[in-house]
Amino acid sequence: MRVLKNLFEQNKKWAKKVKESEPDFFLKLSKQQNPEYLWIGCSDSRVPANQIVDMLPGQIFVHRNIANVVVHTDLNCLSVIQYAVEVLKVKHIIVCGHYGCGGIQAAMENKDHGLIDNWLRHIKDVYRYHQTKIDALQSEIDKINLLCELNVLEQVTNICHTSIVQSAWKAGQQLAVHGLIYSIEDGILKDLKVCITKLDEISQTHRIQ
Ligand code: CO
Predict the structure, then answer these.
(1) Who surrounds ion ligand 1 at CB < 5 A?
(2) Whole-prediction pTM value?
(3) Which contiguous run of DSSP H or E holds residue 179?
(4) Average pLDDT over residues 160-180
């Protein structure tokens, strides 16, 4: 137990604390999960899904990767979306980016970051779509933060274009896709005011009739 000793100690304390406040908490959770939300966020250690919205285990289904990207062929992310939508029947899918994201910053550079550059290409594409608007800004941090927001909106669109989400809508399932952004500096979550709830709200090009 010398290895990762502090983690085991902290875990015991945490489990004890939770049990004290709700004795059958773990027993109830062990029988089923019934989350209303699927959260797709950045892997950044400063953006932990449950904590920033003050939710307990069992309340959010989570997928995280570098810079909260939803790639059309990423079987990992697509499997998470499929399970969340078809089995758990979540009512909301949230893409949550964060200002000052290192992945977004790296995508704007022309440096060699190794393998990860292949992942960052998807963000570079978003930069390319909006380059005029982004490059018109003066400060580097403003440019990064605008791309952080635009990246969230792009990933919301990508989620809506999946066959999974479109099938759910066609079957009459209640499902909304939202874009949010989090500020590490003050802990505040901002709504990017995008909320897609049905097939007619997505581009005709991607619509499966
Ligand atoms: Co990040």
Answers:
(1) 42, 44, 101, 103
(2) 0.95
(3) strand 176-182
(4) 98
